[in-house]
Here is the input.
Amino acid sequence: MGFMAGSVACTRFNVVATPTEIDFDRYAFSPILKGTYTKESVGFIPFEPGEPYEVGQGRYAFRLRIDKIQIDSTQLKERLRELIKTETELSGPPGKKKMRDLKDLAEEELLMVATPRTKIIECYLDQYILFVATTSKGQLGTVCSYLKRLGVEVEYKTPWLDHQLEKDPPEWMELKDPAQSILGCEFIEGITHDEEIYLEGVKGSVKLATPEGAVVSLRGVVGQELERLLGAGAHVISAKLQIGETPLSFDGSSFRIGTMKLRGFKADHWTMRLESRMEQIQATFDFLEEKFQKKVTAPSPS
Here is the structure.
């Protein structure tokens, strides 16, 4: 999923350091050439070929392309068997060192003819907020790492990190990601009966962590079973929500959009289409943060 078409996923970061001008060409993508032993190539590319990265004052639209060659394990085993057979016929059974050499040779031969798999991660930097069209921890790490090479340093953006809110999760609940918080789980649990935003009840999807250490997924009509699990002390990690007519999958524990369908917009230029879609994404996050402030940080009635 990307920002330009179809449904989107999105993770946000605060930009804490950036140069006056960002030179994406310093780490521009270079394709893996046939006949080389390169397994991976990573670099920046513009949203459209030949277009500038800067799309407005302090706004950049860019993509990170990752080409990776992964040798098929079955092909590697078969080629190694062939090399071992040839070596045995010529010089006798190979020893450990020779076996390692033959395996390296088999891998190099396959690398010479392999076709890389391509992954493209779309990003949009608006002043001091970075939007990345993925929730994959590995892909997010790669984006942050390459931006750091350009002098752009970022930190996860969530309402609890922005406002320095802390709350320890239950001992049985393990939150591995540095951006995760029990506050986000409680936020989703607090909107189950909200008038403007609510859990999808008929084609629902909810993931919970239970005190027994299990992770439970509910699908379909989730209301009754969800209430039972919450009553037993479980916490919601993520859920399918409905904001007006807009459905979205939302990870409350890390305040990320897992998937959201955007309204269609016809435009004469790709930048206009991108701006329109980014405005919808930003408006959704603003709405969710406003709800978070009211339901999680508002003082309890005396």
Observations:
- The first helix runs from residue 73 to 91.
- The chain has seven helices and 13 strands.
